[in-house]
Amino acid sequence: MFKYSLKIAWRNILKDRSFTLLNLMGLSTGLACTLLIFLWVHDERSVDQFNVNDSRLYQVMVNGETPQGVQTGENTPGLLAQTLKAEMPEVEYAVSVIPSSWFDKKGIIIYGGQRLEARDEFAGKDYLRVFSYPLIQGDKASALAARRNILLSDELAEKLFHSTDDVIGKTVEWNQKDFSGVYVVTGVFQKPPANATAQFDIVFNYDLFLEKNQKLLDWGNNDPNTYVLLKKGTDAAAFDQKIAGLVKAKYDKSRESLFLQRYSDRYLHNHYDNGVPSGGRIEYIRLFTIIAVFILVIACINFMNLSTAKAAERMKEAGMKKVMGASRVSLVVQYLGESLLMATLAAGIAVLLVVVCFPGSTGSRANS
After folding, report:
1. Residue 337 burial (CB count, 10 A)
2. Where are the alpha helices (H) located in the chain, listed in sequence order?
3. What is the DSSP string of 341-365?
4. What φ, ψ does residue 94 adopt, rounded to 5°?
5. Taking CA atoms, which of 14, 220, 332, 338 is between 20 and 30 Å from 349?
6. Other C-beta atoms within 10 Å of 73: how many?
7. Which residues of 81-120 are buried (b: 16+ CB within 10 A; e: fewer)?
8. pLDDT tens across 142-176, in order?
9. How many C-alpha atoms does 186 have within 13 Å on its Cβ side?
10. Sign, Cα dihedral of 122, 128, 129, 133
């Protein structure tokens, strides 16, 4: 019975090809647009969600009082991370990070006659305990223990050594401003995923950066980003209030206060109004979600209107079938079957359109 109904539905669809093409084009285009938007929304919402301890991982932000009002930034005192770890029992780990964006241009790593450009970060020794960048070679506890120790991404290690095995202990030369010199490879980490805002190839020891920038030993100077991993069960709101006046306590001339923002929220909630998060890219997420729903509703209404108009033209056909003994249920099943078949075809075409248009079919995801 089902096979027979499907066969009849297929024949009716092919009988009026102009109507079928018009209806398929409208519904498949609407579905394709909706799918593309929701894929983009999913991609945006997945940014920086890869960390295992995401629910306990926070970035320390700074509110500074200025004549123009409260200005919010992510540059913190150079000693903040180690102070939080030493003085705040709620903190499991804390690290300072100098991101690759701090440098005007990439550095040059040299090995065996090869010269490759690379993006670098400077990070505290607990960096790999805070962030979930799997270590392929080396030990998390000691990988950044010494100032001349460095970590390489697996991608960079492959380019330099044509392997990620047996690279521990090898020395490479680095050429970049004040940090040029010879370094020892003590670990190989998995390259940051495409949905990570931080993209880098090398990690240097943060103490080396402090050595070259002695001004950061003064609480009145800000530069690195500071991240904390709170202990399980810690009340983040209470801890937020506890650290608010820490900088002022260390430096009485300071006009800055600290607050926490969940690390995975920074990408979407990166706008501030007088020191309070007030939106950001999340506004585009909401806007495009509404647009996608609107497009889907319009496409469905258009499909139903065309299908209803077509059904009205087939009143004589329905009458003849009833005279021949067809039941009302069989007619309903037939017309619904034709609509479902059309919707299925439109969905298939929409998926094909998405595959063709999807950026991933021609290249990797661009860094935001």
Report:
1. 17
2. 2-15, 17-45, 80-87, 127-130, 154-161, 206-212, 236-243, 246-250, 282-313, 315-323, 328-357
3. HHHHHHHHHHHHHHHHH-GGGTSPP
4. -145, 135
5. 332
6. 13
7. bbbbbeebebbbbbbbbbbbeebeeebebebeeeeeebbb
8. 899 999 999 999 999 999 999 999 899 999 999 99
9. 20
10. positive
Write down the mean pLDDT value for the chain.
Answer: 86
Reply yes or no on whether the pLDDT at 58 is more than 80. yes
Task: Tell me the average pLDDT across 348-359.
Answer: 86
Residue 287, both tokens: 């806007």
Q: Which of 223, 211, 225 is nearest to 81 (CA)?
A: 225
d(CA 148, CA 146): 6
Per-residue pLDDT tens for 86-127? 999 999 999 999 999 999 899 999 998 899 999 999 999 999
Which pLDDT belongs to residue 196?
94
**Token representation of residue 209:** 């950066």
Tokens 């209803």 belong to: 308
Show the tokens assigned to 324: 């021949």
Q: For position 68, what pLDDT does the model report? A: 80
Task: Give the containing element (helix H, strand E) for 229.
Answer: strand 225-230
- Is residue 263 within 8 A of residue 48, CB to CB? The reply is yes
97: which 2 tokens? Answer: 């990070």
Computed from CA positions of residues 124, 192, 130, 224, in that sequence, does the dihedral angle turn out positive or negative?
positive
Helix, strand and coil percent figures for the chain, each rounded to 5: 45, 25, 30
Task: State the Cα–Cα distance between residues 234 and 89, nearest whole angstrom.
Answer: 10
pTM of the model: 0.83
